[in-house]
Each structure stands twice: as structure tokens, then as C-alpha cells.
Amino acid sequence: MKNTLKVLGLGTMLFGVMTTAAFAAEYNLKMGMVPGTASNEYKAAEYFANKIKEESNGRIEVALFPNGQLGDDRSMLEQVSGGALDFSFTEIGRFAIFFPEAEVYVLPYMIKDFDHVHKATFDTTFGKNLINKIHDDLGITILSQAYNGTRQTTSNKAINSIEDMKGLKLRVPNAASNLNFAKYSGAAPTPMAFSEVYLALQTNSVDGQENPLSAVRAQKFYEVQPYLAMTNHILNDQLYVIGNETLESLPEDLQKVVKNAAEEAAEYHTKLFVDEEASLKDFFVKNGVKITEPNLDDFKAKMQPVYDEFIKKNGKLGQQAVDEITAAGK
């Protein structure tokens, strides 16, 4: 009797193992990102992971690692490149750390809107060549591109024209494009850690800051900044990227699943930001913020030295980038 029970118990245990194995994914992949779980980026990443699982009939599972658990964006790009991480987010301009000419995508006022950056990335000769470099030299494949907000300016005084920027102590991240926007618009660029910005605004240590509207609400800058100027100076995109090693390890049918899921997720991602931005202006007005819309042609004209310096650094390739991307926006 005891032997019979042992056999039955062993059989049950083996069946349980077999059942678990039968439903386990063939491919367990990882996606790292800097944004946290409350962000639009994370919502889109969840959509991406769920779509892959659904369309692959459970053959692929994607585990998400938000909040910079796996490092900063550069570190995760390097992990994707080296095969230690499967998926991540990045901006097309962020590849300037590897290919200096990619900086063109984040030069102030170089990009008008999301349709423009999409054409500049995928339809220009410059963009196509950059994508090939990213693929061949870094081992990274770009799956899709989403809209991730446009940077605007909040301040403690109204900005009705570029003249109102003169002398404004403007907090910016320590990045060339943001520093140049502040400098050439007449403000006094003030680099500062993001975590310190609210208190600096509250105490008037700085007069303003620039970020996408979603960040203005999330960080509650509207509580301590009564004015919002729609300066539209830098557009943020978000690329869904995968390591070549990971992509090539998948059979052709699952490669197609991943690519299709990335395209669908990018559309959802874009909609989240577009819808949010449309509602946020009303939200800010209801919270006492006055919104101004200065003439952006005046701002762009002041950025010519930035474009000249970019072309000087990158030579013919830089000139090609500026010419083709400018043409793509017409």
C-alpha cells in the first residue's frame, strides 16, 4: 500500500512538473527602463509585453524592470548591445553618445512634431544610414518609435516673447541641447539635479525650468510656477529597441510577433502622450497657471549658432543631417 502511494505520489509530482513545463514560455526576455510604474512609458511597456505574450500564444514572456533597476539609459543601451538585456527604451538623439551626428535630432527647434521626427528617422538617407550603424556597429535593432512629449517652459513671470527670457535663471538638465536652448534664448542656464528642482522653484533659487507637460504635473511644478510658456523647443521620442542577438535567436514567426507588437505599442504609447498633453493645458489653467504662446520663429532664429556649431563638429555629415531633416519637415 505504501509503495502504491509512493508511486501515485511520484506520478502526481511528475505530472505537475510536466504541466508546469508545458505552460512555461520558450523564451523569457527582459525589458529595462528608467521610468517608473506610474509613467506612460511603463503602461506602454506593459501593453508591449502583454501583446507579445498573447500573439505568441505564451511562447514569449517579457519581464519588465522599471525605475532604473538595471541602470541608467546609457547602461541599459550597452547591455542591449552586449546581449545582457533584451529590450529597452531610448531616444534617437541619445545615440549621439556613440555617433555624434545623432545629436541633430535634439537640437532646439530642429524637429517640429512627431510626424517630422518619424520621417527624419526612417525616411531620410541620413536617418537610414544611422539606423544601419546602430544595427551593424552596436548590435541593436530599432523596432518602432513613439512620441514621448514636447518640452515646454514654466516660470515665475510671463514669457510672452523671447525678450522675456533675458536673464531668466532657467533650470536645465546638464545636456548640451537644453543648455543651448537656455543660453541662446537669452536665459541663464542653471544645471541642477531633477530631485532638487521643486524646492529651487519654490524658493526662487531659479526662475523657471523646462520639461514635457507630463513631468510638470507629475512633479507638481505648477504649484510653485504660475506661468507656462509653450516654447516647444525639444521633442522627445521613444524608441523600442532589441538586441540583435535576442532577435536573431527567435524563429521567424516570433520575430514578426515582436516587431508587430512594438509597432502597436508605439501607437498606444503615442496616444497616451497626445491625449495627456491635450488635457493637461486645461488642468493647469484650472490650477491657476497662465499659459502663453510666444512667437517660436524668434526662438528658432536665435538657435542658428547651435546649428552652425553642430555642422562645424560633424562636417559634411552634419550638413547633410541638417539639410535632410529640415526638408523632411516641409
Topology:
Elements: H1 2-23, E1 27-32, H2 40-55, E2 60-65, H3 73-82, E3 87-90, H4 114-122, H5 125-138, E4 140-155, E5 169-172, H6 176-184, E6 188-191, H7 197-202, E7 208-212, H8 213-218, E8 227-229, E9 235-243, H9 244-249, H10 252-286, E10 290-292, H11 296-302, H12 304-328
Parallel strand pairs: 1-2, 1-3, 5-6, 5-7, 8-10
Antiparallel strand pairs: 3-9, 4-7, 4-8, 4-9
Main location: other
GO cellular component, one term: outer membrane-bounded periplasmic space
Keywords: Receptor, Signal, Transport
Report what the structure shows:
This protein is of the alpha/beta class and 330 residues long. The chain has one domain (27-329). Helix content is 50%, strand content 18%. The chain has helices spanning 2-23, 40-55, 73-82, 114-122, 125-138, 176-184, 197-202, 213-218, 244-249, 252-286, 296-302, 304-328; strands at 27-32, 60-65, 87-90, 140-155, 169-172, 188-191, 208-212, 227-229, 235-243, 290-292. Strands 1, 2, 3, 4, 5, 6, 7, 8, 9 and 10 form a ten-stranded mixed beta sheet that branches. Helix 2 links the parallel strand 1 (27-32) and strand 2. Helix 2 (40-55) runs antiparallel to helix 10 and helix 4 crosses helix 12 (304-328). The chain is globular. The termini are far apart. Residues 1-22 have low confidence and may be disordered.
Shape, per Cα inertia axes: globular
Indicate the structural class: alpha/beta
Number of helices: 12
Weakly predicted, low-confidence segments: 1-22
The major beta sheet can be summarized as:
10 strands, mixed
The SSE order reads HEHEHEHHEEHEHEHEEHHEHH
Radius of gyration from CA coordinates: 23 Å
Distance separating the two termini: 84 Å
Write down the overall mean pLDDT. Answer: 93
- The amount of helix comes to 40-55%
- The tally of strands reads 10
Counted up, domains total: 1
Question: What proportion of the residues form beta strands (DSSP E)?
Answer: 15-25%
